Amino acid sequence: MAALLEVRDLKKYFKTSIGMLHAVDGINLTLDEGKTLGVVGESGCGKSTLGRTILHLLDATDGQIFFDGKDITNPTRSELRKLREQMQIIFQDPYSSLDPRMSVSEAIMDPLILKGGMSKADMRAEVRKLMDTVGLAARFENSYPHELDGGRRQRIGIARALSLKPRFIVCDEPVSALDVSIQAQIINLMLDLQEERGLAYMFVTHDLSVVKYISDDIMVMYLGQMVEKAPADELFRDTKHPYTKALLSAIPVPDIHKKTKRILLRGEITSPINPKPGCRFAPRCRYASEECTQMQTLEECSPGHFVACCRYKEIETMDKTLTKLEDAK
């Protein structure tokens, strides 16, 4: 069975006064229907740019994008209009992504108007149905974004994304601006909708606890490149890349008696403008050696688990030895 979404060697560069900024640089991924791919990494690593490039909100510099087996890398205007019905996005900020002059019902109805083919009565009925689906009370139908809290505003964004019955949704940090209790409500809503409608999600976030809970697979990005990808449970259980290990070590543990070893990253961050070949994490990696200056390729270390590090086997051995020495003390 072919994947719903496939990306091959996707690149997105931005021209600057001093060179080309490599925001997304050679990403390969597949996503099946009804599954969630979590995309994590620190701010500026290219997570959001990747999602927007796939949706053609940004034009790709190079590479190929396939959706439902069809090449959609360079769609015509009419083809892109049809793709919009199949591929949607939920933005990070639920306030700035909404038109302050539109009421809740108008914001949700807008995609239906653009699509056409429905009477006003049918569109109003569909809006009420969508509001009920995402847990928005009917009394908010004529409210405006500034009159609602963050959780309700994000529910509007979800309803609007669902209005055209898409199959794939890019979730661009949809809960990062919300309180923890509201985050849980929105995530559970998204999981229920996925089960009900068979939606495929690309869940972009920097919150590793959230991404573990919602994702089937997790992809870790660093300065525009994929450094590790694995099933969610395996990534946390058997981490391979030094950068991923550093990310996971930063997760707070709700147990004051449990000792955790935080991996602090030092060194200069590689410039994403005209970067040299080799591992871009090397200047901050305590395991870096001369071979890290060579081009790194993704290696499948176990079924479905990929890592872009030429020294991951040696690092694993060194870490085990170090742990034994520390335990002996």
What tags apply to this protein structure?
329 residues, alpha/beta, four-stranded antiparallel sheet, 10 helices, 12 strands, 22% strand, globular
Molecular structure report:
The protein is of the alpha/beta class. 34% of the residues lie in helices and 22% in strands. The chain has helices at 47-54, 77-86, 104-115, 120-133, 150-162, 180-197, 208-214, 232-237, 242-249, 312-328, and strands spanning 5-16, 19-31, 36-40, 62-67, 70-71, 87-90, 168-172, 200-204, 217-222, 225-231, 299-302, 305-307. The protein has an 8-stranded mixed sheet, with helices on both faces. A 4-stranded antiparallel sheet has the order 2-1-4-5. The chain is globular, with a radius of gyration of 22 Å.
Helicity range: 25-40%
Summarize the helix and strand pattern as letters.
EEEHEEHEHHHEHEHEEHHEEH
Instruction: Tell me the span between the first and last alpha carbons.
Output: 53 Å
Question: What is the mean pLDDT?
Answer: 89
- Poorly predicted tracts of residues: none
According to DSSP, the number of beta strands is 12
The helix-and-strand class reads alpha/beta
Report the β-strand fraction as a percent range.
15-25%
Rg, Å, rounded: 22 Å
Give, in spatial order, the strands making up the sheet with the most strands: 6-7-8-3-9-10-12-11
Question: Shape from CA axes?
Answer: globular
Largest sheet: 8 strands, mixed
Number of helices: 10
